[in-house]
Write a structure and sequence with these properties.
This protein has helices at about 5-20, 25-30, 35-50, 65-94. The protein is mainly alpha-helical. The chain starts with 6 loop residues before the first helix and ends with a helix. This is Transposase.
């Protein structure tokens, strides 16, 4: 099992928050299984160290990159929905 406070998990958590800002800090931290203050601290560290480079919304190098980004987001959201449905089926099936 992955240690939750390793560098890669921190980076992934910050990227998850950036990609899912609509969930807010509370929703993202809950989905990640960490405290909101922990995620907030990691976001602050990432901003201070400038360790995670993320383009702002709408700043894509080309239309292809924009489409790829949108398709990746759509795929990720679909996978999340599928996971939720699988959990619901297993709960209701018992």
């Amino acid at each position: 099992m992955r240690k939750q406070h390793d560098k890669q998990f921190k980076e992934d958590a910050v990227k998850y928050y950036i990609d899912h800002k609509d969930l807010a800090l509370t929703g993202c931290s809950k989905n990640l299984g960490i405290g909101g203050s922990t995620l907030s601290k990691w976001l602050k560290e990432a901003n201070e160290k400038n360790g995670i480079q993320v383009r702002g919304s709408g700043n894509y190098g080309s239309d292809e990159q924009k489409e790829i980004s949108l398709l990746k987001r759509e795929l990720r959201d679909t996978k999340d929905a599928l996971d939720i449905l699988k959990k619901a089926i297993s709960i209701l099936g018992n």
